[in-house]
## 1
Amino acid sequence: MDSDEEEFESGSRQATPGVDQNAVSQKKAPEALKGASGGYAWEDEYRRSWDIVQEDESGSIESIVLGLVESQKKRYLKNITPFQRGIIRTMVLVLDFSKVMSEKDFRPNRAAIMISNAIDFVNEFFDQNPISQLSIIVMRNGLAQLVSEVSGNPHDHIEALKSIKKLEPQGDPSLQNALEMSRGLLLHVASHCTREVLILFGALFTSDPGNIHKTIQELVKEKITVRVIGLTARVAICEELCKLTNFGDLENSYHVVLYEQNFRDLFMDAVTPLAVTKVESEKKDGFTLVKMGFPSRISDDHPTFCSCHSKAVYGGYVCPNCKSKVCVLPTVCPCCDLMLILSTHLARSYHHLFPMKLFVEVPVAENYNTTHCYGCQVKFPKGIDMSERSKAENKRKKEFHTSSRYRCQDCSNEFCIDCDVFSHDVLHNCPGCESNSRKV
Amino acid sequence: MDAIADRVFADTPGGPTNRIADETPSLLTVILDVNPLEWKKLEDAGTINLKKLLSSLLIMLNSHLALNSSNQVALYTANSFSGGAKLIYPKIEDDSDTATAKKQSNLMMSSGMYRQFRIIDGSILDDLNSLLRSIPDKLRNLLNDGQGTHIKGTLSGALSMALSYINKSQKSIDPQQLGLKSRILIISISDDNTLPYISIMNTIFAAQKMKISVDVCKLGNNSTFLQQASDATNGVYIYIKQPEGLIQYLTTALFIDPTLRPIIVLPTNTSIDFRASCFITNKVIDIGYVCSVCLCILSVIPQDEKCPTCHSKFDHNLITRLKRKPKVLPLVKKKRKLEGTNGAEVDSEVGSNMGTPVPN
């Protein structure tokens, strides 16, 4: 139960800086449950959003709005330890489509939100895990129904998801049926791939035809990891399921959604490949080395037959081993059994393995070394007079709270918050380190 | 899975139905490779020098600005020995603006020139001049400081900076930059082996995600990775065989505005080499081994059966299976001469050494 509270709290942890906080001292709450004023989060006074906005001396609300916009910009703070990760993944996505999904606690209803999030998830999943495979199942009417087969083509999955949009959520969910079906789908997966199941579970019960505990034992035996995102509350059977299939690691495998954005964030977290656990890597007799070919693309004036579909197409890729032509990548060469892939597919996953170091915030000071962001050349605010800091009229001013500079520890260049987020989230390069011609 | 790449650009708004297309301003970001050693090579070959290229480039930048009054340009240098990658234009607004203004010399400028062009051209030429002047000293220092001349290519740094700049302009609420479409042009002369593979790939994906086309104008040797960059981002890759006509390339094939891209058939080369670079030897390979944990590409199986990047131990049985060479049949002895004497015997010997007959 207490983990439930933990979940509940994290939603309200983000206090808005620049806003006077109610200084009522309450009994000291445990660190994890602390609200904005030091007491339990639910003991805080309710803040109406329109109270936050106050006019300044000149009657303008521009500065406060800018402050709010700035505080909304969340810094990228993720764990950057370079874990060994299972990059070549096979995942079964299980969606609850039972009657409870027509509840309207998310708008327009749970099912609609789930599908639209799932579509984004599929896009993002293949964007970051280009050589992985996915399959989608729905739980409906006490059965598990296959929506899309195991495949590496995001298009198929998205089309399939769009087609079930019209489907009315119905009946009871059955975890056991869904798990058995996933087990079947993951049965033939090669040993160098991960086997994962991600369940979105809206109901608080499951109606199963047999003993689900046996199914869980089978999953453990076949090294299938199951993660669950609950939409309502924690359920004992899901807890057991996650605990047993994740080597007892419940914290990272079972989550309950707090609000709409949280749902999305939890869903998107599953895009990052799972770290290989110590237990796993010790048990294994070694990892696999896969022989792969990097074909060149050719174009011809006349269509020629491809060896994979026997269709006449213009251009394609030529297997470097046997020189046969295939039309889509990645694939296994139908002639010589060599795995064919584009180097760009592999490179897309590298940032999971070589994560970028986090930038450090520069403390507020009177003088700074830099005047402009190294990445985008935007001007930084100037240093402040320390004696002015405690004055009441400056309390709301942004430059007294933050220096707006974030420094890379390797190259000591300083960046603005936008470039910090951009280079960690999208670029995965530090512009400063890359611009230095001396470092190798 | 190739669909990933295609999808990113397929849903770009635009197309013939988009009527306001030609009204949107655009930002042209040019990354100029100024590696002095490579330029020397090109100059010795007698084809082109930096001066000629610059005059063509300035014409291109000016014509871009002339197309739309809200168009913008940015210029970065890469691979220079002093300071690596650097922003040349727009100039960082300094507090000492007056000092730079009076320094403005008129090297190639005539007074009758359109003022905006004159300012831009002047500032670009000044900055490049001072950069080039400092290079010989820098190079001498580098040679003297005992670390050797090994210098990392900084094209990825210039690309990263350009992308950060574009990212900021996309997010900005400044009305001047609202809806600004951007593209990047790389003028590269250096070889592939100066490119840091992972960071270049990262910038390519970032550009792909942001839907920014990367055009490449390649002088010197052909480049595999830059070809991949332009292919992934729907850009144009042109390998210039006749640098004398550079101005023509720059103002035609490399001058396609992002809004026109959905309509125009791009002058891309259709055969692209998608080979990868080996992590150990840095060689470009077409068949390699890939570690299933970290996806690093190896051209040889490591001796200690451990991945050099992530140190995972490989399965011994599997390695031996990969190392196993196909059995080579013993050569058929040429006994044709003897056929006359003991033909029957030869026949039987040949038959036993033959492999499985090929099905017809």
Note: Chain A has four domains: 2-51, 53-79+356-440, 89-283, 292-349.
## 2
Amino acid sequence: MAVNATNDYPSGAAGIFARVRSLLTGLTITGRQALRPVGTVRYPREKVVLSPRWRGALRLRGVLGRDEISVLSAGPPAYNALIDGLYRENRLPACVGNCPANVDARGQGYLLGEGKPSEAYELVRERNIFPGVLGRICHHPCESACRRNYYDEPIAIRPLHRHAYEEYRKVADERLKPFTVHHDERIAIIGSGPSGLTAAYDLMRLGYRVTVYEKDEKPGGALYSGVPAYRLPREVLHDEIGNLVKMGLDLKLGVEVGKNVSMHRLLDVYDAVLIAVGLQESRILPLPGHDAEGVEGALPFLRAANWKGDAGVKGLRVLVIGGGNVAVDVARCALRTGATEVRLACLESDAEMPCHPWEIEEALDEGVIAMCSLGPEEVLVSAIGSVRGMRMRECISVFDEKGRFAPEFGDEYTDISTDVVVFAIGQAPVLADVIEGSELTLTDRGMLPVDGTVFTTAQEQVFACGEVVTGPGSAIVSIATGHEAAESIHRYLQGQSVTEGRVVRPVPLYEEYQPALLDGVEGERRRVTVPMARPEERVTDFRPVELGLTQMEALGEAMRCLRCQSEVCVGCTFCARTCPDYAIQVERIDDPGQRRVTLYDLDLSKCCFCGLCAQQCPTDALTHTGQYELTFFHRDLMVFDCDEMLRSGEGTRATGRDSGREGNGEVSD
Amino acid sequence: MSGLIWGAIYGLAAGMVISLAAFIGVWGERKIAGRIQLRYGPQELGPFGLLQTGADTLKLLLKEDITPAAVDVRIFRVAPLIVFAPAAMSLAVIPYAYGFAPIDTGVGVLFFVAVPAISVVGVLLAGWSSRNTYATLGGLRAAAQMISYELPRTLSVLPVVLLAGSMRPLDIMDAWQWWWIPLTFIGFIVYFIASLAEINRVPFDLPEAEAELVAGPFADYSGIRWAIFAMAEYGGLVAASLFGAAVFFGGYLGVPGALGVIVFVLKALVIALLMLWVSWTFPRMRPDQLMATAWKVLTPMALIQLVLVGAVISWL
């Protein structure tokens, strides 16, 4: 049968005939079709049973105002297991996971928001023994991992530490209590830097008697001798160390192990010894002229500047070699001790500089001149044997393809005239005196072989932590090693295996955030700006550069925290903002300490089940149930309110009014 | 007074007839559509799925009667009835059995072609009161189409009136001769096509176009009100089939007495079946094709038929 599927019919009678024929053809086709046996199978006789108590596609696990947000708190040996467990369940907040010491920044934000700064301080102190100190100097990996980066700007976690400390200081005397001693063993810790004191704090919590030996007259280690006072006022450091002493720490100042007391004696008297001496010696490149007058290492320079307030550079020009944080500290100290001109020369290009970007930015504001991609070649020495300049060579690339340090130099030379050259290219430990009298030996390069995870040394009784092990690093990394070393010492003293059944702190990788688009972001969503002293004013002395947050600012900032992975809805409204159909309505009260969600409405008649809301929910409170079938007797029932959203599992009656605001709660289970 | 009572009884009866027709019609349509598409159609509920329509009706009745906030409520509510009532009314003048039409009137044919035109108003009102662009446009398109096809439809039944010399349906039945079938066949075809267009069935359902235009004038209707529109469509289909069977194919003639009703219904059933068959065979027309068919094809055809019959009458 020819099927004509066209509109082009001939004109006249033939056309009419063709049209009628095509109509008849169509009818014939369908007519024959209808007489043919049916091609499909019969539908199977099947009954689909829909539960009248079916749940709906989305549910809330918890909501602020009804559910508490748990803080991460556990004794020193159990904390790693807690963090690891949460991480495996995908319930670890990114800020906590990214912190080397796993400080509970979420709990801090929660407690601060509830108006409990002292509790917040004590919570932070469990993992970071110096919240006030780290609140000023930490390089805050927590903030880089903050989920808020994804929406607008991260929470100011570090300034909040500082705020918590300042609030705590007012009530410290009431809250400080000495730890009870319930173990006979005694432990000696060499060095009162962050790692040593962290281990001391953990061991005191576990009930041991701890003695810390410090060779300087003041405690603090690198925090005292290295970190300049404009970043860390000494009273803050010594106040927090003083708190440790009030908790029962035996701190022996001005006692140098290897000189005033021998390692041999320590091993006799104490049951365990922890070496946490840090790095004592600045490296200086063996260039021609490196022994000329005016060439200095970074650590002696910083010590002089910090302790005496005078590094002997008044009225002189200073050139700092190196691009790390120490180099920036040296440069800014040089400015503050009266140098007329401070230059900073480093191998790396300005994008690759190893120091933290905010550090170099503040230094540039203060007038430091950065000269990038220059490698030191030769110290130019004047006739009387003092420095008159430095010859630098152009550096083409610093790292090879595999990312190893292998600088390549060009042919261009630059002479920089200067009076003082400070090398800030790295530090080395000085351990020979310390370990004399033990069974330990050093490597050719003067390093102590230490297990990098459990911090044991060749001698069973001796442990080591801090920068002795990790090399130059940040304070919070040293603190993390202190916790681990304390656990090892505890296990050793209790006769347990140091490794067996031990949860190694997970090192999760958190995504790097691109800067979020801030166009159209409301003012109250923005991160608080930490006020800074004006550059021209602050370079004149060692007063703090960063000024603290006011109480209201700190409260507001703590409110911004989304309480990630807490499985409690905080009313952040990001689900409502994400929803393409405007199906979600969220309202909350933001009053300090009273923050709660007052309205959470999901209109299922608008919902397209895309799941974007649950996908982005920072707290994981909003989840997809995977149940899509639902029937309603009335359209009003399609709006799920907060109570309906919170109903657990399959136990939701979607077909009748729930016990929510209407209050006719005839819920039957 | 008695007229009112009789009217109420007729109205009730007509409503029930249409409901029953819709009940069976929907089932039949789905079955036929299914067979044409090599499917079974409804088969689960009742024998051959006969009760499926009942379940659907129950569902439609139980559904929420949504009245959107912005509509003109009174008109919105009454529009379905304005569409449905003329379809029911037009059943009243059809000669069902020998000497019996519920309303025996001298202008029966006129009544039959004129009254359904009222439903144009209902459709317009439905679209207009919905206060929504799609519905309003859909209503206007439907009105344009229905008014256009009034003309060929009216013209197509005129030859029979000419032959019978009366507009009274019972008179037409009395005068009816078998040879009228070939004589008025062109007229029947015009009547058939125009009726399809009048009740907005495929291939003339372009104002409604459920899938594309969200049912045109009925966009905002749901539940039972929407069902009334659908029933009016089936009512129109039933009325058109019955009337066509009566005037073009001699209705109850051929069998004496009350049995003639059965013959009459069977004849109407064949025409209804043909309408369903056409619906599931041809694709929807374009608006320009629709208008061209009405004015350039059907109207001239009806006029030719009229002239033809006129010539035959003068020759008689």
Note: The mean pLDDT of chain A is 85.
